[in-house]
Structures are given as C-alpha cells and as structure tokens.
Amino acid sequence: MRNQYGLIGKNISYSFSKKHFTEKFALGNLDGYVYENFDLQSIEDFPKLITDNPELKGLNVTIPYKEEIIPYLNKLSKKAAQIGAVNVIRFTKKGTLKGYNSDYYGFKKSLQPLLQSHHKKALILGTGGAAKAVAFALNELGILYTFVSREEKEGMIDYNRINATTFDNYHIIINCTPLGTSPNIKDFPLLPYQFFTEKHIAFDLIYNPEETQFLKKAKKKGAITKNGYEMLVFQAEKAWKIWNKKF
C-alpha cells in the first residue's frame, strides 16, 4: 500500500511542494511514498478527491482554498482555528480529517533573523489565508500590524492611505498578495516605494520569481528583502512532522 500525500489548490503546476517532497522521499529512501498535485477547479470537488484516493495520508492546501477547506474538515488544531486558515490536513487513524496551519510557523521562523529593535509595526498587504497566518505570527512576536486591502474596511486601510508617515511608523512591509507571481512578473502592489529605507524589511511570500518587482523596488531604496522560499521550506518540514504524529 502506498503512502500518498499531495497538494490541493487551483492552477498549481508551479508548486514548490511536489518537488520538495518528491526529493525528500527519494533522499530518505522512502519507497512507496508519493506526492501529487490535485488541481481543483472548485472546493466542492474535494469530497470526490478523498473518495478517489483512499491511500491519502496527508495534504497541503494552497491558494485559493486555505479558508474554503475548513467546512470539509472534522476538526481543527487550536492554532488553525485561531488563525482561520488551514494549509495542512492530517488523515487520522480514526479516518477523520484534521486541519492545521504551518504557514505561521514558517513565516515566523523566516522573519525572526531579520528583526531589529526598531521593527515594531508591520503592514500586511492582502487579507487572505496567508495574511491571517502572517498576522498570527506577528502577534506571537509582539509586532503590531495593520492589514492593507484594495478597499478600506473595518480594521484595514486601503493603498491610497499609505504615505511617507506610514513608512515612518511601519518598518516591516509584507506582501501576502499574488501580485508579481510568475508568469505575471511585472505586477507589484501599488505602494509609494520611494519611502522605503535601510530601516525597512520588505518580505514577499512569493518565491517564483526569486526576486519580485516588490522586492526589487524596495531593495533599490536600501531595504532588507526576503522572498518566501525559506518560509515554504520551514512550513513543509512542519507539515511532515504533523503528518507523522503518533496519535
């Protein structure tokens, strides 16, 4: 019997996860372990996926289903429930599906080495599942944050509100939107990039391309920059531990 794992999302041929876990299984001589992409055009296709793949032991979840998947799960970990987004599903011995979040862990572990004493406030660009995980991690780190949305909503600001004063107060800017992801590599969040300085961190959850327009523009002004690759490695290793819990 195979040990099958995989990723659910939409238009995920670019996926980091399949390459990462396929290489991991090969290096570890884990015979019978496979990792596959499951491209779902709708989250409503999820129950059929489970029925059609009885050897599944665990799944990763990516855009756009990190929030939509929750009603299909039997249980959530405490942190996944607090975050309101799931990127790891474990198939328990009882046959139930439990949702976890390892995104927050990966982001936190990746950001921490960059932090200095003046990094006290962050702007989170985007409001989806990944943004929620980032917010949870920032909260654990004691960093205040504000969400930035295309439309101003309660507890958020829109891009038009961001100016020199904003950059004076917020020294961490995190792109949690898909803007700039390959193949649309010319796209970027509409920010006044001239206000970035060497005191700022520009963190992009995107890893393909390696350096987005967002990171390039921030780097030109002296900002410390980092893409999402290391975060993905950390969250993937956390997912592997979750799948292999002995209970």
Automatic annotation (TrEMBL):
Protein name: Shikimate dehydrogenase
Domain Shikimate dehydrogenase substrate binding N-terminal: 7-89
InterPro entries xrefs: Aminoacid_DH-like_N_sf (IPR046346), NAD(P)-bd_dom_sf (IPR036291), Shikimate_DH-bd_N (IPR013708), Shikimate_DH_fam (IPR022893)
Record's keyword terms, sorted: Amino-acid biosynthesis, Aromatic amino acid biosynthesis, Oxidoreductase
Pathway(s) annotated for this protein in UniProt: Metabolic intermediate biosynthesis; chorismate biosynthesis; chorismate from D-erythrose 4-phosphate and phosphoenolpyruvate: step 4/7
Keyword Heme in record: no
Matching Pfam families: Shikimate_dh_N
PANTHER family hit by this protein: BIFUNCTIONAL 3-DEHYDROQUINATE DEHYDRATASE_SHIKIMATE DEHYDROGENASE, CHLOROPLASTIC, SHIKIMATE DEHYDROGENASE
